[in-house]
């Protein structure tokens, strides 16, 4: 069923309307033909591809706040989500159908030209995950407007993240421990983004993992 967005008589339409589907992208209206039902049974290859794509979609869903900042680029026709999805499908998902998993060391949660910091560390203290980073003194002023993106993902894909609580110049930040059994691995990532300059970002950095106490 289609929904009208906005208060105008001719608002933007989102959803199915007869044989047409309305889509709103960046505030603009687009229409496409609704797919017809197929009586052809999908091949095994198609089933595997669809399952892999569904796994990627499910994995990225809770990471949307980070993805929207880390992959956004003004005047780029591709959405942040599509760029993150492309990288995930190309180099991060491993395993065979139906047992897909994530190669956490190859996971990117942001991509961009901002310089990464010199040194990083992560540890657990008082039910928090403590992130620390260090920059060379001569470049601190060049990065003082950047926000630090802190991300923790358990081996079972629960996500804890912070996108606007800490600045790069803080040199430290923390996340609450997720609800997970003792011994669960928590994979940690750090990235930086300058929201004042077209959301320029750094490549995210994998800091390794900590284990639930």
From TrEMBL:
Note the superkingdom of the native organism: Bacteria
Please name the InterPro entries in this protein's record.
DUF6266 (IPR046233)
Q: Which organism is it from?
A: Plebeiibacterium sediminum
- Protein name as it appears in the record: DUF6266 family protein
């Amino acid at each position: 069923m289609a929904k009208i967005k906005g208060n105008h008589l001719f608002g933007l339409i989102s959803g199915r309307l007869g044989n047409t589907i309305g889509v709103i992208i960046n505030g603009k209206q687009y229409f496409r033909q609704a797919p017809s039902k197929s009586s052809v049974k999908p091949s095994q290859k198609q089933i595997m591809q669809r399952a892999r794509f569904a796994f990627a979609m499910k994995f990225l869903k809770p990471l949307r706040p980070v993805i929207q900042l880390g992959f956004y680029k003004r005047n780029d026709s591709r959405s942040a989500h599509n760029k993150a999805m492309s990288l995930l499908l190309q180099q991060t998902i491993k395993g065979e159908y139906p047992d897909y998993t994530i190669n956490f060391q190859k996971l990117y949660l942001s991509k961009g030209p901002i310089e990464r910091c010199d040194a990083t560390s992560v540890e657990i203290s008082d039910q928090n995950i403590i992130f620390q980073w260090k920059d060379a003194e001569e470049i601190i002023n060049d990065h003082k407007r950047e926000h630090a993106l802190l991300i923790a993902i358990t081996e079972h894909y629960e996500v804890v993240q912070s996108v606007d609580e800490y600045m790069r110049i803080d040199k430290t930040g923390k996340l609450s421990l997720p609800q997970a059994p003792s011994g669960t691995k928590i994979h940690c990532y750090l990235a930086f983004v300058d929201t004042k300059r077209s959301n320029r970002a750094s490549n995210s950095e994998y800091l390794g993992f900590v284990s639930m106490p």
